[in-house]
Amino acid sequence: MYMKTKKRIDTIFTEIALIIISLIVFAPLLLAITISFQTPDSVFSYPPKLFPTTFYYNNYINAFKAIPFARLLLNSAIIAVAITFGKVISGILAGYAFANFKFFGKKFTFSFLFATLFLPAETIMIVPLFLIMNKLGWVNTYWALTIPFMASATNAFLFRQHFQTFPSELEDAAKIDGAGPMKFFVKVLLPLSRSMIAGVVIINFVYSWNMYLWPMIVSMEDKMKTVQVGVKMLISGEGTNNWGVIMAGTLIAVLPTVIVFLSLQNLFVKSLVRSGVKG
Amino acid sequence: MSFFRENKFGTKTIYVGLDNFEKVLFDTEYLQIAGFTLLYVGLSVLITIFLAFLLALLLNKNVPGTYIYRALIFIPYAVSPAIAGSLWTFLLDPVAGHVNYFFTNIFGTQIAWLTTRPYAFYALLFATVWKMIPFSLIFYIAGLQSISNDLLESATLDGANAFTKTWKIKFPLVSPITFYLVIMNIINAMFKSFAIIDVMTKGGPGGYTSTMMYKVYLDAFSYQKTGPASAQSVVMFIIMAIVTVVYFVYGERRVHYR
To answer: Of A62, A152, A181, B256, whose Cβ has the fewest other Cβ atoms within 10 Å?
Structure first.
């Protein structure tokens, strides 16, 4: 009996603590939603409001007027989709090569890959990378925004680990049935890796949608910028008075990743943990 | 490139040996920035890991509604550093922000968070930790779930209280995860938090919140000093190489002992 009441008290305390903590963690987004629906005059109302009381959607329209938001959203979408696509395909192919084939220099190339696993290359090599893009005349183009990110050590490593978990009997059986390595890969391995691929796709999508430094540097013209940079343009352009418009823009920029994240959370969490614990 | 000096228009390049490194490593301003980076990275990683572990303990009790709490607390993972910076810039705004409203009511003072020392540093810490917690949290929850119940039950029979169970059994058992998270969070705080700093303080006031990455960006793309900027990149590369080597040496040992 004593244990039971103790456990119940523990549960109640945990419950209260979790409610408070999740409210605090979620507060920045909630308050941003609140302010984004307020008229410019009531932004500075005192005390500040916690929940939206008005539905003043003009802030969203004004955000599109202040900066070329539609174009920025399109850019972000193109870049995120292209990078995700390239990264996942190259990762799968490299992972398959490392897991299932013997080739000259495999050990050397793999240890090279392994060593770069933790190096955020695009930030450490940002100066030479920019000069290369400049020489190629790729500045202010989608090429500079996507090509440098098409290959990823993390993805190659991840898929190698994943493909190695399949028993070699599987390949032997396929061989007996007359399937070559390519057919085995397309007809057997890929369908079996569906959830893994989906998870990696989501992680890469969120990553590339959220990139900031590189897009800011290689896109000097407004029409090539991404929404992440757009948020900063709003802050410096609107000054500190127009929080309604700034937060409206911020929420538009964050919406795609939050929707993807919330709707596929379980898959997301599983893949993320797999990527770390095994890596 | 770190061995060369270039003129303003990039038409002439001369070899200057280790000159750029010398300029960087013996520059008091750079050392100050390196010190700030150490403080910022160290503190944000420590606070993140500690809070994430405590939160994981709470979320692992599986009280009713855990699914909703988890969804809400995980959200900052999907929020980009730039947007985290934007949200917190608003919250900390001296006039319209909510944080200042509560602060004024409790302490009776109004603070210009982003433009005064040392508050600009605290402001960055808030945003960075808020953004980084979910990543570590996800790993800790998975790690804690894999601890067998038998182990904890036998500890209870031996008279271990909740505190001992947490810090003498659970925490050591997830130490490989902690180690992995420390490395990942160091990388995040050193490089990805660039966006938070750029949006919130722009390295100010007066260069007070510039990190090494921010300095590379300023030198290379605002002041066109590619030589020193490259030298700084090399310094950061060496730091990261050391971190990576430490990780793999430790990781090897772990495999051997198992």
So the answer is: B256
Q: Which of A14, A59, A15 is nearest to A35 (CA)?
A: A59
Report strand pairing: B13-15 vs B4-6: antiparallel
CATH number at residue A261: 1.10.3720.10
Taken in order of first residue, the domains within chain B and their CATH numbers are: 4-257 (1.10.3720.10)
Q: A229: which chain B residues are within 8 Å (Cβ-Cβ)?
A: 82
Residue A25 structural domain: 1-56
Closest chain A C-alpha to B28 CA, distance in angstroms: 22
Predicted ipTM beyond 0.90: no
pTM for the predicted model, two decimal places: 0.85
Q: Domain boundary at A11, A26, A56, which?
A: A56
Are A98 and A231 in contact, with CB atoms under 8 Å apart? no
Alpha-carbon A249 to chain mean position: 19
SS3 B209: coil
User: Which of B97, B139, B194 lies nearest to residue A213, judging by beta carbons?
Assistant: B194
CA angle A127/B131/A43 to nearest 5° reads 105
Q: Is B106 on the interface with A (CB under 8 A)?
A: no
Q: For B127-181, write each residue's pLDDT tens digit.
A: 999 999 999 998 898 888 888 788 888 888 887 788 888 888 888 888 888 888 8
Residue B161: CB partners within 8 Å, gap ≥ 6? none
